[in-house]
Amino acid sequence: PDLRRSERQLAAATARIGVATAQLYPKVSLGLSASSAGPAGDFLGRDTFAWNLGPLIRWSLPNTGAVRARIAGAEASTRMALASFDGAVLQALRETETALSAYRQELVSVEALTRARDDSAQVARQA
User: At the top level of its lineage, which domain of life is listed (predicted)?
Assistant: First the structure.
């Protein structure tokens, strides 16, 4: 199994919880505007030019139920990704155990064949 892929999916699902939780809090940004009011000849002149800078705050307070539902969905998705990751780890362990068992059997076979070869060589020398 691809453990890296399962781990990345788990990490992404966990990050989605943070993204959903962030929707509970206000979003603050900085706004900047510039304007010029006056005759065309004085465009961008010192007396006709103005600029404004200020914070912009956006917060959807009455809709926290939907946000909490998205958080719950993200948490459920994370639990599913964790179960998938655990399954992939267990499958990898099973495959490793099977491969090691097969390797051990091959070592036993090699040892038996080596003994048989040595015994045959000894019998041939004695004959």
Answer: Bacteria
The one-letter amino acid at 58:
R
Question: What's the gap between Cα 72 and its chain centre?
Answer: 18
Residue 122: what are its φ and ψ, rounded to 5°? -65, -40
Q: What's the whole-model pTM score?
A: 0.66
**How do residues 69-109 score in pLDDT, each as one tens digit?**
999 999 999 999 999 999 999 999 999 999 999 999 999 99
Are the C-beta atoms of residues 88 and 1 closer than 8 Å to each other?
A: yes
CA dihedral (105, 109, 112, 114) positive or negative = negative
If you write DSSP's letter for every residue of 109-120 in order, what string do you get?
A: HHHHHHHHHHHH
